[in-house]
C-alpha cells in the first residue's frame, strides 16, 4: 500500500515538508487507541531467533533506524512500532542550530537516492535528553557531533558535552565525523585528531560506573589506506566498533536532474560501496570489532549482503523512505529463513 498509494502522493511535495508531515501523521495516529498495536502487527517480527548480542547489548532484531531520521528524539517510541530492533537519534550538538539554508533536501527518483545538506539541524542535546527520560525500553543509539561554529581545534569539547549529557539516556554512542555538510568536519577523520577525540571520549567512558559502547561512523569516500588507519585507531582506542557508512560526496553514475546538488548522497547508488567498505574492514581487521552496515539497503537481499560481508547489524534510512516499513519486516523474515 505504501509504494502504490502513499509514496506517489508524498513524493509530489517538498521532501523536508513531507518529512515533518509524516512525523506528525505517525505521532497523531499512534495516539489513536489500537493504532500502535496495528503497526506492530503489520511490521514487527517477534522471534527470539532474531535476537542479536553485539558489544554487550541485546538487540531484539538486527535491523535499526539510522541517525538523521529522528534527530531530536521526538518519535523514537512510535518508530519502534514499525519493527526496528533499535533507533539511532541525532546527530545532536551541544547547542541547538538551524542547519544549512533551505532548500537542502532533494529526491533523486531515477536513482532511488537522496541528497541532503541539512547541516546537523537539531534543538540541542539537552532538549533530546528531556524526551529520552520517558523511554520505556526502546534501545537507543546517540549520534553526536560538533556545532557548525565550533572550530576543529575545540571540537573534542563539543563531543564531550554531548557524551556527558546523553550518557544516562542512550545505550550506545556514535561519533559522527563523517558528515559532508558541516564545514571541515571530515578533517577530524585524519588519524591524529580522530585518535585524540576517540581516546578522550573513551577515557571518560572508562571512568563511568558502567561503560557504554562507543562507535565511529565513517565516510564511504575513504581510501584503503585511510580505512587501514581506521582499523588501527579502533584497536588502539578500544572503542566498540564502526558504522559503515555515512553519505557520499561521489556523484558517479547518477541519472537524476538533481544530481549536481551539493551535500551527501544516500540510497541505492551507495549500496555497493558501503558493502565494499564493510568487507574491507571485516577482513583486514580479522573481524576484531563489530560493524553496523548502512547505505543503500532497499531490499532484504541488500541487507543480507552486508551481513555476509561482515556486518553484525544493519540500519535503514533512504531505503525506509523509498520502500516503506514493510522493508523492515522483509529483512527480518529473510534472516529467519536462513536460520
From TrEMBL:
It catalyses: (S)-dihydroorotate + a quinone = orotate + a quinol. InterPro entries: Aldolase_TIM, DHO_dehydrogenase, Dihydroorotate_DH_1_2, Dihydroorotate_DH_2, Dihydroorotate_DH_cat, Dihydroorotate_DH_CS. The active site is at 179 (nucleophile). It comes from the Bacteria. Keywords: Cell membrane, Flavoprotein, FMN, Membrane, Oxidoreductase, Pyrimidine biosynthesis. Its EC number is 1.3.5.2. It is a peripheral membrane protein. Pathway: Pyrimidine metabolism; UMP biosynthesis via de novo pathway; orotate from (S)-dihydroorotate (quinone route): step 1/1. GO terms for cellular component: cytoplasm; plasma membrane. GO terms for biological process: 'de novo' pyrimidine nucleobase biosynthetic process; 'de novo' UMP biosynthetic process. Binds 1 FMN per subunit. PROSITE patterns: DHODEHASE_2. It is an enzyme of class 1 (oxidoreductase). Its main location: membrane. Residues 50-336 form the Dihydroorotate dehydrogenase catalytic domain. GO terms for molecular function: dihydroorotate dehydrogenase (quinone) activity. FMN binds at residues 67-71, 91, 143, 176, 217, 245, 267, 296, 317-318. Monomer. NCBIfam families: PRK05286.1-2, PRK05286.2-5, pyrD_sub2. Catalyzes the conversion of dihydroorotate to orotate with quinone as electron acceptor. This is Dihydroorotate dehydrogenase (quinone). It comes from Flavobacterium faecale.
Amino acid at each position: 500500500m505504501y509504494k502504490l498509494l502513499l509514496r506517489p502522493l508524498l513524493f509530489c511535495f517538498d521532501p523536508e515538508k513531507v518529512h515533518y508531515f509524516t512525523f506528525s501523521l505517525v505521532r497523531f495516529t499512534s495516539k489513536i487507541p489500537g493504532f500502535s498495536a496495528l503497526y506492530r502487527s503489520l511490521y514487527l517480527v517477534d522471534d527470539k531467533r532474531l535476537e542479536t548480542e553485539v558489544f554487550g547489548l541485546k538487540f531484539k532484531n538486527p535491523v535499526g533506524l539510522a541517525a538523521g531520521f529522528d534527530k531530536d528524539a521526538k518519535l523514537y517510541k512510535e518508530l519502534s512500532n514499525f519493527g526496528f530492533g533499535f533507533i539511532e537519534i541525532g546527530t545532536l550538538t551541544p547547542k541547538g542550530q538551524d542547519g544549512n539554508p533551505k532548500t537542502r533536501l532533494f529526491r533523486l527518483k531515477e536513482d532511488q537516492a537522496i541528497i541532503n545538506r541539512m547541516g546537523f539541524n537539531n534543538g540541542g542535546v539537552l532538549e533530546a535528553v528531556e524526551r529520552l527520560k520517558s523511554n520505556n525500553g526502546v534501545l537507543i543509539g546517540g549520534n553526536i557531533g560538533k556545532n557548525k561554529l565550533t572550530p576543529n581545534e575545540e571540537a573534542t569539547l563539543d563531543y564531550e558535552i554531548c557524551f556527558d549529557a546523553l550518557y544516562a539516556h542512550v545505550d550506545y554512542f556514535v561519533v559522527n565525523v563523517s558528515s559532508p555538510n558541516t564545514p571541515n568536519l571530515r578533517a577530524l577523520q585524519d588519524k591524529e585528531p580522530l585518535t585524540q577525540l576517540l581516546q578522550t571520549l573513551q577515557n571518560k567512558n572508562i571512568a563511568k560506573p558502567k561503560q557504554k559502547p562507543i562507535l565511529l561512523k565513517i565516510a564511504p569516500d575513504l581510501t584503503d589506506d585511510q580505512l587501514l588507519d581506521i582499523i588501527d585507531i579502533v584497536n588502539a582506542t578500544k572503542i566498540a566498533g564502526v558504522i559503515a557508512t555515512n553519505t557520499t560526496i561521489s556523484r558517479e553514475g547518477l541519472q537524476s536532474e538533481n544530481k549536481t546538488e551539493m551535500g551527501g548522497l544516500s540510497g541505492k547508488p551507495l549500496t555497493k560501496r558501503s558493502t565494499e567498505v564493510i568487507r574491507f574492514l571485516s577482513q583486514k581487521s580479522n573481524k576484531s570489532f563489530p560493524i553496523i552496515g548502512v547505505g543503500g539497503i532497499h531490499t532484504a537481499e541488500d541487507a543480507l549482503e552486508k551481513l555476509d560481508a561482515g556486518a553484525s547489524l544493519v540500519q535503514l534510512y533512504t531505503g525506509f523512505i523509498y520502500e516503506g516499513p514493510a522493508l523492515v519486516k522483509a529483512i527480518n523474515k529473510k534472516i529467519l529463513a536462513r536460520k
